[in-house]
Amino acid sequence: MNLILLGAGLIVLLIPGLAGMAWLRPFDPAREPAEFLADAIALSISLTSLAGLLFNLLGIYPGAAGAAILYGLCLAGAVTGFLYRGSAPFPVRQKLPALFNGLAAGVCIAALLWFRLYQVRNLVLPNWVDSVHHTLIVRVILERGGLPGDLHPYLDAPFSYHYGFHLLAASFASWAQLSPDQAVLLLGQAINALIALSIYRLARGLEIPRSAAALAGLLTGFGFHMPAYYATWGRYTLSTGLVVLFPAMAAALEVRRHPGNRRAGLFFALLTAGVCLSQYLAIVFLVLFLFVLALPGLWQAIKRRSVHLAPLELAGWAWAGGILAFPWLFRALMDNLSQARVQGIRLAVRSSDWNYLISLLGPRSNHILLGFAALGLLLAGLSAPSSLRLFAAWSSLMLLFSQPFFLQLGPFRPDLYAIVLFAPAAILLVYLIDRACAALGRRTHPRLATGAMILVSSLLLLWGIRENRNIINPVTVLATRADLHALRWAQANLPSDARFFINATPWQGNIYRGTDGGYWLMPYAGFYTLVPPVPYMWLDSSSIEQINRLAHLAGQVKGCTPDFWEIVREARLTHVYIHEGKGSLQSAPLDFCPRLTLLYRQQGVSIYAIEQLP
């Protein structure tokens, strides 16, 4: 089974990208296998997302058979491209280092993947609130056979969410014969592990030495609290966006260094489109980076009073990528126009905002790493090569946007920037370590510098593994093994039109969520629940108001009260799902309710049938 999962993952994450790389960027021994692999994975995500959009615009749902044909064509295109457009043969002395580097990259990726799976070893379903609607979207894609325009039949809501991860997860589920929830969990962790590879790609694009770039990737995977902690929130779309973003940033640097290279420009445009379709917040990160890259050229143009073509070329390719994704971006903008806003700089900030930011950047081990990374930021800003100075400027912007007093763009809160600070921190920290070890080597002996680098790297990685081995916050675990058993029983024994009362509680803003495994009834088994997954906020205003009002009542009922029966009548509920100790309504008062029949009770989970209304 593990080989099936591995094969399915390789098909989904590599084959489309290899086809594109074969024609756009044939393998060159001067480029490392790890860089090539990072680019291929990022391109796979981009091409898959663009193919999904194309079929959506054409009204075509290819399904599993159509997807198999498409992957077969990609495989044929990859083989053909590498045979006829690949680089010329190179000597054995160049093959051996490339082979060694490729094996080393494979070992590191395997270790990172194992660690990510180990960190979620106790989860039976993907964690927290986001995972519920991610799984629902994957379920809809699988049932439709392609990218949908709405979430019917589960929610009569339009669909304009960033979908790159969901298409990949649906394809992975189809190839591996997994349920949507398990595909989300396993592929989500694999993609999270691949962020480290993308960080390595960006570090090399910034011309950081190979050993330091490798340490940046390993610290991302083992040392920093983020992005590993994304698993506790189910932030799989952000993980996917970052896997594409960092190679896109490296590609932007290449376009800037080699103006007129059309292949490099087209590759950057495709990755830009992938960023746009994988995570809307990542678009902001990329735009900020392009803004920083354009500043030196704009400054020269102002000084010389002439047009500087380098920033225009980079902007042109970025614009081309945006055009490729524009049909979906326009739909998303129209559906979320009410959330578009710019909030200015605030002089008065609550202490709770600062406390939340500090806790978010924790624990203490992470604070220490970020503190040293801040020294690396100062060093890079003062004395680094030009590309790294520009990266330091981008890092400073990311840091500013993470502050509660700074500008806020659209719906993107400061904390969303803060949880991505690990990326600049990893690169700036290893730059500091590399410079310090180099200085030590110049004053003593070069071998001592190498030894110091190995020692520091080993200590940091071992410390990080120890601190991050148990990453899941138990407060965010909605579904336990008892819930999973109950969900399976309900799926096997209840009619498909069952409608469930579940306990509810406020979540963010005016959104409500479930408190236990009952919240998973819709994405796991297709049942209606009193509080649907978060995309219910895409319904019309009257439907949202009704759900919120009933959810508010549900958060207060204690038994078979008039409020309980009002909820049952208005929502036309047929069943009740209770997990002992979670939510306001518990099983003890329901056991004595004459209109309820106990159908299932195991390990604290109870399911009742509503026989008749009062």
TrEMBL record:
The keyword Transmembrane helix applies. Keywords: Membrane, Transmembrane, Transmembrane helix. The chain crosses the membrane at residues 6-24, 36-58, 64-84, 96-117, 183-200, 236-255, 267-294, 314-333, 368-385, 416-433, 445-465. It comes from the Bacteria. The keyword S-adenosyl-L-methionine does not apply. This is Glycosyltransferase RgtA/B/C/D-like domain-containing protein. It comes from Anaerolinea thermolimosa.
